[in-house]
């Protein structure tokens, strides 16, 4: 129907999914660089008279050849609508570029709004609908899909054989594949050995096309939201998935496969790609083929929807007639020749083990709403920003308390911090302080490593190595108290003074107690100073990780909330990694946390 839902034909056996819910506010659609590649439908006939109605069609490049052939047959049939002959003009257009135009965010290489739009996925339509602009400006009439292609895990055939020989099932789970690609699961638990858990951690190097430019990349985020958003620690897991995707972004789907020809060293390259891309790659690289792996939970399908834009009833009628032509027997044959399935999931006859793809119909995960797409893409936009963080470790006397045989509270916390450090890419900026009371220099805090890029070389080592070395040398200050408020104000002043707008700027303070410095500022004085210094246009967020039974959550929370931060408390060492990821994922809700 008009102005709202976008109905598409989808493969059967659809499973319900739960999309990430905590990410509110409207999406800021990035102005994308797109390319409109023009191709006109050939027609062996012509409309008589001068009253022909031209209907422009923008189709995703991978389905455009089939659309152009169908348009040629349509034009030959000389359909009359309201006494006028309808003629279709087809052009290949990047769906991201069309979405940018329709959202009112720019042109990105496409300047003409089509009458009929056939992107590779309904996700683009829902993204535009969720942008808050098109409902008034551009009415949408959603028709059926004309093809389908599931997102699969593509890997070199030799790697797939190696995994099967090691006991990995034919259809491992998405979670286990992501853990094997370096994504923390947020629970501290080992992968399920009966459902793909045989894949060694960090064995795989994930390649994903940019979610801002590719429906496959966007679909990967939706898939992560579906499978993990409703589970305990879902935000933390999503944060880990985004980090993994961000580190493995490829310029395009085709670019993903270049890594398959770059050697055989671990971690092995795998690509999230549409099934038809695996089929096309193997057609051109028979000597070094890829294999499509279909995870057990199912997948998101590219569905190639036909969408009519605008109110003109004649063009809406033409769009409906063309949608019927696109699902004819001849058009379905054209679609299958491109390595695409038909809307019901039926595969081309050429889909065999030899061509690396499975003709069986995978389970299809439920399609998200327009608001879910907007919220998830907003989460991606926030989480894919680089981090600039000052980490501050409590070394007061109580941190010597044992939490396990032979392990002190400080040692356990440092292990957590070391694990968290491994989750941050090299372009993240990090610094490390420690605090107690009356440290050398007469202050309650001491800088160990200045804030800067983790990958930056500092003499013979990198900043990441310097931070790890600082952790190794960190010791409890015997009889030291907790100069917390003094340290918080000093850290906040430093991070505000050195604020960088291209980063998410934050402070992460690790403590096991409360402020115990009688010579330092009071809670009220601390809150008053933070209230004066906090600038919502240059936000620096204070997050605190409390560990143990003596944490004064109420007072710490008042301090954190003054900067729109939060306090997280861990009772056991096993909870720390998930809490660390949750603290990092706080930036999703900025600046409205």
UniProtKB/TrEMBL annotation:
<keyword id="KW-0812">Transmembrane</keyword>
<dbReference type="Pfam" id="PF13531">
    <property type="entry name" value="SBP_bac_11"/>
</dbReference>
<keyword id="KW-0472">Membrane</keyword>
<dbReference type="InterPro" id="IPR036465">
    <property type="entry name" value="vWFA_dom_sf"/>
</dbReference>
<keyword id="KW-1133">Transmembrane helix</keyword>
<dbReference type="InterPro" id="IPR002035">
    <property type="entry name" value="VWF_A"/>
</dbReference>
<protein>
    <submittedName>
        <fullName>VWA domain-containing protein</fullName>
    </submittedName>
</protein>
<feature type="domain" description="VWFA">
    <location>
        <begin position="388"/>
        <end position="584"/>
    </location>
</feature>
<feature type="transmembrane region" description="Helical">
    <location>
        <begin position="18"/>
        <end position="41"/>
    </location>
</feature>
């Amino acid at each position: 129907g008009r102005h709202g839902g976008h109905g598409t034909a989808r493969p059967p056996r659809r499973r319900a999914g739960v999309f990430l819910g905590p990410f509110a506010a409207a999406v800021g659609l990035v102005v994308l660089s797109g390319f409109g590649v023009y191709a006109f439908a050939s027609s062996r006939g012509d409309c008589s008279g001068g009253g022909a109605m031209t209907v422009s069609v923008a189709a995703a490049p991978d389905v455009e050849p089939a659309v152009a052939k169908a348009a040629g047959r349509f034009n030959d049939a000389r359909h009359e609508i309201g006494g006028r002959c309808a003629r279709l003009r087809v052009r290949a257009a990047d769906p991201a570029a069309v979405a940018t135009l329709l959202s009112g965010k720019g042109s990105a290489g496409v300047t003409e709004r089509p009458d009929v739009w056939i992107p590779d996925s309904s996700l683009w339509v829902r993204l535009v609908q969720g942008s808050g602009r098109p409902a008034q400006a551009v009415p949408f009439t959603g028709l059926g899909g004309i093809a389908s292609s599931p997102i699969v895990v593509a890997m070199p055939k030799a790697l797939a054989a190696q995994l099967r020989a090691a006991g990995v099932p034919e259809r491992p789970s998405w979670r286990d594949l992501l853990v094997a690609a370096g994504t923390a699961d947020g629970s501290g638990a080992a992968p399920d050995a009966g459902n793909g858990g045989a894949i060694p951690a960090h064995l795989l190097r994930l390649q994903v096309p940019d979610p801002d430019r590719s429906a496959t990349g966007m679909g990967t985020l939706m898939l992560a939201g579906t499978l993990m958003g409703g589970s305990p620690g879902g935000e933390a897991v999503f944060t880990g998935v985004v980090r993994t995707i961000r580190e493995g972004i490829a310029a395009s789907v085709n670019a993903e496969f270049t890594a398959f020809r770059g050697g055989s060293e671990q971690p092995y390259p795998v690509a999230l790609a549409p099934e038809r891309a695996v089929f096309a790659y193997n057609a051109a690289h028979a000597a070094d083929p890829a294999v499509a792996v279909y995870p057990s939970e199912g997948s998101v399908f590219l569905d190639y929807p036909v969408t009519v834009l605008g109110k003109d009833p004649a063009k809406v009628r033409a769009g409906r007639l063309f949608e019927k032509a696109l699902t004819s027997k001849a058009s379905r044959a054209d679609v299958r020749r491109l390595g695409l399935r038909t809307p019901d999931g039926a595969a081309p006859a050429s889909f065999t083990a030899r061509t690396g793809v499975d003709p069986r119909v995978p389970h299809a995960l439920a399609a998200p709403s327009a608001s879910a797409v907007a919220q998830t893409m907003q989460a991606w936009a926030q989480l894919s920003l680089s981090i600039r963080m000052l980490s501050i470790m409590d070394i007061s006397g109580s941190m010597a308390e044992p939490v396990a045989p032979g392990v002190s509270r400080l040692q356990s916390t440092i292990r957590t911090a070391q694990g968290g450090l491994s989750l941050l890419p090299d372009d993240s900026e990090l610094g490390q302080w420690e605090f107690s009371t009356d440290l050398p220099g007469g202050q309650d805090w001491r800088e160990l490593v200045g804030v800067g890029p983790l990958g930056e070389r500092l003499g013979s080592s990198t900043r990441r190595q310097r931070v790890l070395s600082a952790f190794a040398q960190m010791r409890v200050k015997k009889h030291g108290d907790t100069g917390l408020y003094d340290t918080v104000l000093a850290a906040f002043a430093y991070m505000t003074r050195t604020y960088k707008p291209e980063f998410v700027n934050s402070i992460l303070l690790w403590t096991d107690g409360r402020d115990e410095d009688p010579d330092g500022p009071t809670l009220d004085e601390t809150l008053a100073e933070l209230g004066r210094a906090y600038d919502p246009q240059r936000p620096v967020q204070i997050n605190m990780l409390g560990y143990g039974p003596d944490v004064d959550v109420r007072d710490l929370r008042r301090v954190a909330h003054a900067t729109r931060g939060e306090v997280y408390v861990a009772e056991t060492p096993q909870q720390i990694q998930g809490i660390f990821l949750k603290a990092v994922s706080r930036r999703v809700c900025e600046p409205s946390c």
